[in-house]
Amino acid sequence: MQTFKDCTESPIFMEENTMKKLTKALSLVVASAMAMVSFAACSGSSEEQTSSEELTFKIGSIGPTTGAAAIYGSAVMNAAQIAVDEINEAGGINGYQIEFKYEDDTHDAEKAVNAYNSLKDWGMQILMGTVTTNPCIAVSSETAVDNMFELTPSASSTDVLVAGDNCFQVCFTDPNQGIASADYIADNNLATAVAVIYNSSDVYSSGIHDTFIEEAAARGLNVVSDTAFTDDTKTDFSSQLIAASEAGADLVFLPFYYQEASIVLNQASQMGYEPTFFGVDGMDGILTLEGFDTSLAEGVLLLTPFAADADDEATQSFVAKYEEAYGETPNQFAADAYDAIYIIKAAAEQAGVTPDMSVSDICDAMVAAMTSITVDGLTGEGMTWAASGEVSKGPRAVVIENGVYVAM
User: Fold this and answer.
1) 327-363 b/e (C-beta count within 10 Å ≥ 16 → b)
2) Which candidate, 152, 170, 76, 168, places its Cα nearest to that of 393?
């Protein structure tokens, strides 16, 4: 009979020990495999979440929601959100949802650039802005360097387009407004003698003024008074109004913003001077200016691409949604912004861009698409764009009657 020095030499013990070692090794393998599966699952979930977050179009916007021009910027923000919500509900752009973020610049160029940088940190891929001209000039220089697609709803100076080929406009340009205003006055025999008051320190106002004066001469309009003010003197227009009155002007052309226009109308009323006042798109907003007596604007004419009382279905649907959401009638800036979001959609779909593309690649594709699309919007039918960024569409004339804009 075989004997062993100790029990560990027993075949039975050795077999049991081997089995224990194999079982332990197998357990370690299984545990390791399960851990890898678990990590992969967690990792996949994280990647899936990140991918889901990235696969949205991030559209930023900049404009004044506080300060003197807040009526413009608030209207743009509100209307853009309506358009974004509509597009997302309908399936998005190329199947991807839109994230929209708006930054206040108080109509200040430096603050607008700061807002732009903040939106870039957020991940902005497309800029719908800025709202007003001077901030837009500053920001468009930044978007040109970054090669980011930019569509401004309402900055109308051609100066916003010079930094690069990446910026486009929804509103018609200042030169076009000056020409169209002179043509409308001449075509409709609105005046025998015209006075002009403009802001020589503002590129928006002076740009319209210059082309108006040139076209007025070409059309035979009798400009009897041409006076200026600056940002430092825009609270007293008595000297300009006296000059217009003494020259016998029966129409005064006001190519500037509604804040200054409200002062002009008030001071003219106090003087007893009652010419026809004719404004441009910057005057749109005067009826919602806090503290302004809207009766002073009775009979004021202005050229604008949008009339809230138009009877087409698209306008009435937009106006109804805006009034329900914000408790007031939308102005031209709201309509421009609403159109801007849909123009971005049209260009993005024509270009076939997706959110995982770089900002520069999105821009290049959409720039190419802009010159080949045609858009019917609230502010124009058959809108097209030149490679320069300028839009082709016609203005509409409205008159203020009983505190509302009425299409002519």
Assistant:
1) eeebbbbbbbbbbbbbbbbbbbeebebbbeeebeebb
2) 170
| CA 202/CA 285 separation, integer angstroms | 18
Which residues, 6 or more positions from 340, have their beta carbon under 8 angstroms from its beta carbon? Answer: 80, 83, 128, 151, 152, 153, 170
What residues have CB less than 8 Å from 51, skipping those under 6 apart?
none
Residue 198 region by backbone torsions, left for phi larger than 0, else alpha for psi between -120 and 50, else beta: beta
Q: Give the rounded percent of residues in the chain with a pLDDT score beyond 70.
A: 87
DSSP string, 60-111: EEEE-SSSTTHHHHHHHHHHHHHHHHHHHHTT-BTTB-EEEEEEE-TT-HHH
Asked if 152 and 176 count as a contact pair (C-beta separation under 8 A), the reply is no
pLDDT at 319: 97
- Alpha carbons 37 and 208: distance in angstroms, whole number: 68
Asked if 56 and 355 count as a contact pair (C-beta separation under 8 A), the reply is yes
The whole-angstrom distance between residue 346's C-alpha and the CA centroid of its chain comes to: 15
**CA 255 to chain CA mean position, Å:** 21
Predicted pLDDT of residue 394: 76
* Mean predicted confidence (pLDDT) in 317-326: 98
Task: Provide the β-strand partners of residue 375.
Answer: 383
Residue where the block lists tokens 């108080």: 106
CB 344 within 8 A of CB 126: yes
Work out the angle at residue 371's Cα, subtended by the Cα atoms of residues 366 and 377, and round it to the nearest 5 degrees: 90
Whether the Cβ atoms of residue 378 and residue 334 lie closer than 8 Å to each other: no
Domains detected in the chain: 54-172+311-394 (3.40.50.2300), 175-304 (3.40.50.2300)
Q: CA quadruple 203, 204, 207, 210: dihedral positive or negative? A: negative
Residue 72 burial (10 A CB sphere; 0-12, 13-18, 19+): buried
pTM comes to 0.74
Q: With 0-12 CB in 10 A as exposed, 13-18 as middle and 19+ as buried, what is 306?
A: buried
